[in-house]
């Protein structure tokens, strides 16, 4: 059997990581891998995480399993963070997962189990793993237009025109904030129009929220998800703690199911528990426990929010400075979108040849579609990148 296995397509991000590591040039710049980095190029352990880990080390007395859905306190704290303390918890079920990817996978599994004929609609472009998992599961999927390659903004009219084809029972996958890979986001008026359309069509929204706090702040970044959950009869939400808590390797995520009514919650929760049991039994707890400790301790929460805000403002400053430097070098405002986008990523709009030239001639690495990680920059590399973009003629 094993000798008959076929070669799997290479992951584009992992390919870039391999090329970057093999590059011996001292001035190379990595804008490919999707992790936050500070000005020193380090993905730091946040102060509140360090403090919580120390406290946990002192106080924890067991490593026994928590439960199929994880620690209920973790789910409650995360529901408050994402949906707000005023959310109707009588309708909300949740289960801890191995990272946001685990939450996405479990949501797709739930959809396939309960409605195998459903089509999952995803934005074009989207995070590549969305499409990869859907294909692996053999699910029906369609894309909807999202990004205008000329304006580098959301093409809302095209998005709504495509979503007009959604059928009852279909799933529409949306990015809660900081759209990956484009960095372009809907405004709240547009979010409301999407929610109203989904209600009219009888479709279910699925929100992937992986960057809460990286865009316009914790509350502002949650506003769209809260609007969708308040408007639509049911909602699936896949959440990640990797970025905003900096605990990538702890694989800390949560799948939330907002049921049509309180009488449906028990069945939704039982289904989430069942899916966890089938795939990995009990979810990891270490990262989830740290998050719970931070979100339920006023001092830890305040310090976490302060550091998260420093990270967010740092990325906005990098965006503003890069757009300004490109304006100075090119005499054009065509890169002004960089200052308007939010989150870690933006699609630069460079051709594959431009991306190749940036890599080969300037040691600047980004994904082939020109997605670049803004958090991979610092004050010294912003002018280096701007000069290279101008020289290759993007």
Cα-to-Cα separation, first versus last residue: 48 Å
Number of domains: 2
- The fraction of residues assigned to DSSP E strands is 5-15%
- Would you tell me the overall average pLDDT? 97
Q: Percent range for helical residues?
A: 40-55%
Enumerate how many helices there are, as a single number: 14
- What structural class do you assign from the helix and strand content? alpha/beta
Low-confidence stretches are none
Task: Quote the CATH topology of the largest domain.
Answer: Aspartate Aminotransferase, domain 2
Q: List how many beta strands DSSP finds.
A: 13
Shape: globular
CATH class of the largest domain: Alpha Beta
Task: Enumerate the strands of the largest sheet in spatial order, edge to edge or round the barrel.
Answer: 2-10-9-8-7-3-4
Radius of gyration: 21 Å
Question: What would CATH call the architecture of the largest domain?
Answer: 3-Layer(aba) Sandwich
Main sheet properties: 7 strands, mixed
What's the CATH superfamily of the largest domain, by name?
Type I PLP-dependent aspartate aminotransferase-like (Major domain)
Give the topology string: H per helix, E per strand: HEHHEHEHEEEHEHEHEEHHHHEHEEH
Characterize the structure shown.
There is one protein chain. It is built from 14 helices and 13 strands. The chain has 394 residues and is α/β, with parallel strands linked by helices. It folds into two domains: 2-45 and 301-392, Aspartate Aminotransferase, domain 1 (Alpha-Beta Complex); 65-296, Type I PLP-dependent aspartate aminotransferase-like (Major domain) (Aspartate Aminotransferase, domain 2). Strands 2-10-9-8-7-3-4 form a seven-stranded mixed beta sheet, sandwiched between helices. Strands 1-12 form a two-stranded parallel ribbon. The protein has a two-stranded antiparallel ribbon with strand order 5-6. The longest helix has 33 residues, at 298-330. The N and C termini lie far apart (48 Å).
């Amino acid at each position: 059997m094993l000798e008959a296995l076929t070669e799997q397509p290479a992951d584009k991000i992992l390919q870039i990581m391999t090329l970057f590591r093999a590059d011996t040039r001292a001035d190379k710049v990595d804008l490919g891998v999707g992790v936050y980095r500070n000005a020193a190029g380090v993905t730091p352990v946040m102060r509140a995480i360090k403090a919580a880990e120390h406290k946990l080390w002192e106080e924890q007395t067991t490593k026994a399993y928590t439960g199929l859905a994880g620690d209920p306190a973790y789910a409650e704290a995360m529901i408050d963070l994402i949906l707000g303390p005023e959310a109707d918890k009588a309708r909300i079920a949740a289960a801890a997962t191995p990272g946001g990817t685990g939450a996405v996978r479990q949501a797709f599994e739930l959809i396939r189990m309960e409605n195998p004929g459903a089509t999952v609609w995803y934005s074009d472009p989207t995070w590549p793993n969305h499409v990869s998992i859907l294909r692996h599961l053999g699910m029906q999927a369609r894309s909807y237009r999202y990004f205008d390659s000329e304006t580098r903004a959301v093409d809302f009219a095209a998005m709504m025109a495509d979503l007009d084809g959604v059928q009852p029972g279909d799933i529409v996958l949306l990015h809660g904030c900081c759209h990956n890979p484009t960095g372009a986001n809907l405004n709240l008026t547009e979010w409301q129009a999407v929610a109203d359309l989904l209600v009219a069509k009888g479709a279910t929204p699925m929100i992937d929220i992986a960057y809460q706090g990286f865009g316009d702040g914790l509350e502002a970044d949650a506003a769209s998800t809260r609007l969708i959950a308040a408007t639509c009869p049911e909602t699936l939400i896949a959440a990640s703690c990797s970025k905003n808590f900096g605990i990538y390797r702890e694989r800390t995520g949560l799948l939330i199911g907002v049921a049509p009514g309180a009488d449906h919650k028990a069945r939704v929760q039982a289904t989430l528990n069942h899916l966890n049991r089938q795939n990995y039994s009990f979810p990891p707890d270490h990262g989830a426990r740290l998050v719970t400790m931070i979100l339920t301790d006023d001092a830890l929460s305040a310090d976490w929010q302060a550091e998260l805000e420093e990270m967010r403002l740092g990325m906005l400053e990098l965006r503003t400075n890069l757009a300004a430097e490109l304006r100075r070098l090119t005499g054009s405002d065509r890169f002004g979108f960089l200052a308007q986008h939010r989150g870690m990523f933006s699609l630069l709009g460079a051709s594959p040849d431009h991306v190749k030239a940036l890599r080969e001639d300037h040691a600047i690495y980004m994904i082939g579609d020109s997605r670049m990680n803004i958090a991979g920059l610092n004050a010294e590399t912003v002018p280096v990148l701007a000069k290279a973009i101008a020289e290759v003629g993007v």
